[in-house]
Design goal:
By secondary structure, the protein is α+β, with helices and mostly antiparallel strands. It has helices at 87-93, 138-141, 151-157, 170-189, 193-211; strands spanning 2-10, 14-22, 25-31, 42-52, 60-62, 70-82, 95-102, 106-113, 123-128. Helix 4 (170-189) packs across helix 5.
Length: 212
């Protein structure tokens, strides 16, 4: 069986890292507003670099100066299965339907690559397909599926640390901060993710024209 893990990550901004095992690594997406639970709901999911499988059960603190510095909780974990065609081909084609069997989440979801992508970004939508699942309570949202600890307890106890062997460059940090902030603003405004991305693109073009 293939594993999946969702890690709640209190880094530059609080977000959820959705990871699925494929080709010996964890394919990963950063989901600023968490996993959708109601059929038809969708959340922006920013495709990020692959992670090693042994990172899948990491819960602890990434020290300052490392990429992704902050507290990490194993929010949910379990196994996943693709629905239909070969999952690698589905990802390459931009649409992967799958089922999760986790401690908090069980059911069907779909990852869809956004068409109006900006250069250098790989933005997807995580869509709740299939039946609704029970919404996650505030208590369960702040409870590790691995240890039962809260984010505050994880940050305070620091029983495990992870060094990414990759320094957090200012440019990388700023780009990620901008993308998370944009997604949060879009969600609060209740606008589709692709509209927010398009607005951000137009804003950058206007700034470039002003400079030139």
């Amino acid at each position: 069986a293939l594993m999946f893990v969702i890690q709640k990550h209190d880094a530059t901004r609080l977000h959820y890292d959705f990871r699925i095992e494929l080709e010996g690594v964890l394919k990963s997406w950063a989901v600023p507003k968490g996993i959708p639970t109601q059929r038809g709901d969708r959340r922006l999911a920013m495709h990020v670099e692959d992670h090693p499988k042994d990172y899948g059960d990491f819960e602890g603190v990434i020290p300052e100066g490392n990429y992704g510095a902050g507290s990490v909780m194993v929010w949910d974990m379990g196994t996943w299965e693709p629905v239909g065609e070969d999952p690698l081909k589905a990802l390459q084609d931009g649409k992967l339907k799958f089922t999760l069997l986790g401690k908090k989440l069980t059911g069907e979801w779909t990852l869809v690559r956004m068409r109006e992508r900006e250069k250098g970004k790989d933005e997807w939508l995580l869509v709740k397909s299939g039946e609704n699942v029970r919404p996650i309570s505030a208590r369960a949202d702040d409870q590790s599926a691995l240890t039962g600890r809260t984010m505050k307890q994880i940050a305070g106890q620091k029983t495990r640390t992870w060094k990414s062997h990759r320094a957090a460059s200012e440019r990388t940090a700023n780009n990620f901060r901008e993308r998370i902030a944009q997604a949060v603003k879009q969600a609060r405004a209740g606008k589709p993710a692709k509209d927010a991305a398009a607005m951000a693109s137009r804003s950058r073009r206007r700034k470039a024209q002003m400079v030139s």
